Amino acid sequence: MEPGRGTQGRSTLGERYTVDGTRGESIESAGPKYRRRVLALGACLGLISVVNISMCCYYSYIGGACTNADITESQANIGIDTCKFNQTNSWQACLVESNAKGGKMNSSFATSMAFTGQQTLVYTWLAFAILFRSLCHYEWLLSTIAFMLYAVLGVVAYYSFNPFLPYPHQTAATVASLTAYIKPDMYDKTGYTFTPKEGDATFIFNDSCDEAYHWNLSFLAVQYTSVFIVVLLLVIAFSAERIRRRYPLAIQFPPLKGTNGPMGISFVVLCLYAVMVFSKADSAIINLAIMNDVNVEAATNEVRCC
Fold this sequence. Notes:
Layout: E1 7-10, E2 16-19, H1 27-64, H2 73-77, H3 91-97, H4 109-134, H5 141-157, H6 175-181, E3 191-194, E4 202-205, H7 209-244, H8 260-305
Antiparallel strand pairs: 1-2, 3-4
């Protein structure tokens, strides 16, 4: 045994860590404990994912039940109804009627919510799987932490590069933009225009929209619960990495040369990417606020006029 080297610990990749007993427990002894904690959080993530998938499926059902939310007068007169929830007083109709011409949306809000939930599932389960794998190969922990930070950003504010459409009726909607949109007054003045075969058109308000708002709010809570679980996994990753650094590898390789330039460029690119993501989120929230104010004012003026 080399002087000052002490006993040897072995990782699953075969590299040996120096262990002298004076720096606390090693990552070799603490690894199983952290893996059990990750599995426990994985069980919680599984339960919340079942709820998430169920709600996404129901959002898809609502969005798919209406091939055309804006029924023309001629269709209404001859009894053609292309939307299961149109011209009803159910809370599902609120999600559909708000998409109609003159409403707050121009496409399927329910379908967009389903896409958002699926995006959350992808990022959270990737974070879980990669962390558990890193706790079997401890040298991966540092890069895993970087990915998990990106996973949190991805769940909350990820946008596809093309197209840039910040409205929540598009698949580019994010949890951040939906948070700005889902408010108690999001379905104010929501209803449908009923045109009988004889007589004038009548605008009928939907009085069941509070239930639709609470359903949307519950869905949003599910997304943030998933984010919270990823944050807890991130805490475990930081703790495991701190323990890993107590003991250096017994076999040390010389550092790579010429890495300062690429690392500096990578850091600049990362900062610019973060600025782009947050700028898009801010733009989406501003657009939603303007759109909401304009449509509420228009609907109010329409009611006063009629």
